[in-house]
Specification:
By secondary structure, this protein is mostly helical. Helix content is 72%, strand content 0%. The protein contains eight helices and no strands. Belongs to the UPF0174 family. Belongs to the CBP3 family.
């Protein structure tokens, strides 16, 4: 009987994690990023957008309740399981996956550091530079970086407006990437 209680709780937590992760993936796959902002529509470009959205979610719940902290860890774990699965679907063999996963994990945590530093300092030019450096390292002057930084700012504000209880129930909303907002001054 006790095991069935743990099993139900684990299934509820899994459902919450999957619902949150699905919403994060949907936000990262908004066509506007790839069509209008010229984010590369490639495995690496999609990884960059997904890691950005996972970061935004984890940033929002950082320092909150232990339940949200656990959810944040579960979402991050789901992200890395998804990346592992994607690498295997791309045909990378069992022996090559761990090496690539370590590299992608280092990339993810490096991005968190640079995005966090820019957001904490409210430094829009630094955020633009970090996004450009990470998402379009092949371009010296990626015009989509400023618009993406504006989207990140909108996402941070929208995520902050969502109550902890709503997030803990498995619901999260990201902005419509193509929606226009008053330009920055």
């Amino acid at each position: 009987m006790i095991l069935s209680l743990f099993s139900r709780k684990a299934k509820a937590n899994e459902a919450i994690t999957i619902a949150l992760y699905d919403a994060i993936v949907a936000a990262a796959r908004q066509p506007y990023f790839y069509s209008d902002l010229d984010v590369p529509d490639s495995p690496l470009g999609r990884y960059e957008m997904l890691s950005l959205h996972v970061y935004l979610f984890v940033r929002r719940i950082k320092g909150r309740s232990p339940a949200l902290k656990a959810i944040g860890q579960e979402v991050t774990d789901e992200f890395f399981r998804d990346v592992d699965h994607s690498l295997r679907e791309l045909g990378i063999g069992d022996s090559g996956v761990p090496k690539r996963m370590k590299k992608l994990a280092r990339m993810f945590y490096g991005r968190i550091e640079s995005y966090d530093k820019a957001l904490e300092a409210n430094d829009h030019p630094a955020l633009v530079a970090a996004l450009a450096r990470n998402i379009r390292p092949d371009s010296d002057s990626w015009s989509g970086a400023a618009a993406l930084a504006d989207y990140v700012g909108r996402a941070v504000r929208l995520l902050e407006s969502q109550p902890d209880e709503v997030l803990a129930s498995g619901k999260v909303i990201f902005p419509d990437a193509g929606a226009l907002e008053t330009p920055r001054n």
